[in-house]
Amino acid sequence: MSADKTKYLVMSRDQNAVRIQRVRMDNSTFERVEVFKYLGTILTNQNSIAEEIKCRLRSGNTVQKLLSSRLLSKNLKIKIYRTINLPVVLYGCEGWSLTLREERKLRAFANMVLRRIFGPRRDEVTGEWRRLRNEELNDLNSYPILCG
Predict the structure, then answer these.
(1) d(Cα 61, Cα 80) in Å, to the nearest integer?
(2) What is the structure's pLDDT at 64?
(3) What CA–CA distance (Å, rounded) separates 128 from 37?
(4) pLDDT score for 104
(5) pLDDT (0 to 100) of residue 102
(6) Which of 30, 44, 90, 141 has a beta carbon 3.0–4.6 Å from 23's, enabling a disulfide?
């Protein structure tokens, strides 16, 4: 056995699951952990993806200044969003079981990025600048913002 693989994770929503903290096998000791990073994905003992989504959204925020730049065209910003942001944020989403709260967080992130790309609009009636509404963002961007 490899010396660096010394931890194990039991995934269960059952609060009464067996609570053995260490397992010994062939002169190796394995420590039970509650959170584990496996193939770039954060796994928890409660099988919750909230921490994983939070981490993915943080990673997706790394190019926000680039998307706000006036030096890049909107078309290029959309390409960056589709080829960099979405794959980073949605990596592994096929296995996610989203709650309504997590789905809202993903939608809010996508809308925030799209507002940054498309910028504000001048209201036709008042002439004042305003934020784009969610419906307007959906019309402007035909790319899916969540896995489905």
Answers:
(1) 12
(2) 83
(3) 48
(4) 93
(5) 92
(6) 30
Token code pair at residue 51: 């921490």
Residue type, 21: Q
Cβ density class 57-94: b for 16+ within 10 Å, e for less: beebeebeebbeeeeeeeeebbebbeeebbebbbeebe
Report pLDDT for 18. 61
Cβ atoms of 67 and 81 within 8 Å: the answer is yes
Spans in the chain with pLDDT lower than 50:
1-2, 146-148
Structure tokens at 105: 């967080």
Exposed/middle/buried for 52, CB within 10 Å: 0-12, 13-18, 19+? Answer: buried
H, E, C per residue of the chain: CCCCCCEEECCCCCCCCCCCCEEEECCEEEEEECEEEECCEEEECCCCCHHHHHHHHHHHHHHHHHHHCCCCCHHHHHHHHHHHHHHHHHCCHHHCCCCHHHHHHHHHHHHHHHHHHHCCEECCCCCCEECCCHHHHHHHCCCCCCCC
Residue count of the chain, please give it. Answer: 148
